[in-house]
Write a structure and sequence with these properties.
- The protein is of the alpha+beta class.
- The protein has one domain.
- Helices cover about 25% and strands about 20% of the residues.
- Strand 2 and strand 3 form a beta hairpin.
- It is globular and about 35 Å long.
- It starts with a helix and ends in a 5-residue tail after the last strand.
- The relative contact order is 0.24.
Length: about 70
């Protein structure tokens, strides 16, 4: 099982709060060697909270993206 597949289960088990915690902090607590960046899937929606998504490449090469709610 890849780190991307394990990530959300770990977040649930550790009660991580995507709405209140910095996404980078959550990811790096799980995998300190992961790369984390933000992007706007809709270039016309520049709202820094709702329009921004987080992308992650974990140290095993797997990846995931999620929004402000962790979805």
């Amino acid at each position: 099982m890849s780190l991307a597949e394990k990530f959300f289960g770990w977040c649930c088990d550790n009660r991580r709060d995507f709405k209140r915690e910095a996404h980078e902090d959550i990811v790096l607590a799980f995998d300190p060697e992961a790369e984390v960046w933000e992007y706007f899937p809709n270039p016309f929606d520049t709202d820094p909270f709702y329009g921004c998504h987080t992308a992650v490449e974990f140290s095993d090469g797997s990846n995931t993206t999620f929004n402000y709610k962790g979805e």
